Amino acid sequence: MVLVVARRLTSEEKPIMVKATMEWYKSSFCETAACLEAAPVGESAIAVRNNAHPGERHLEFDRDGWNVFLDDIAEGRFSNL
User: Fold this and answer.
1) What are the pLDDT digits (tens) for 17-46?
2) In what order do the strands lie in the sheet with 25-26?
3) What percent of the chain lies above the pLDDT cut of 90?
4) What is the dihedral of CA 52, 1, 72, 63, to 10 degrees?
5) Cα 80–chain centre separation
6) What is the three-class DSSP state of 77?
């Protein structure tokens, strides 16, 4: 199971701004503007965004959820999509 750490903020919380210095990575197989990019967020999370719209919101996965997602890809669980 992949855990997405995306939720509505409470009134006491402020949105986290993506730093311009985040280092985004995309697959070497990406040949179009329709790819996902990933970037580490500290040591506890991975941010994922659409590279066609880099200024828009991104999703964050905790490291365990991200690793499960990568394992599922390696095992071909999304090959029928």
Assistant:
1) 555 568 888 888 888 777 888 999 888 889
2) 25-26, 36-41, 45-50, 59-62
3) 16
4) 70
5) 21
6) coil
- Only one residue has tokens 């995306």, namely 6
CB half-sphere exposure, 54, CA atoms < 13 A: 13
Kindly report the pTM of this predicted structure.
0.64
Long-range contacts of 31-38 (CB under 8 A, 24+ apart): none
- Residue 50 tokens read as 């659409």
DSSP string, 18-65: PPTT---EE-TT--SS--EEEEEETTTEEEEEETTSTTS--EEEEHHH
Residue 49: beta bridge partners?
Answer: 37
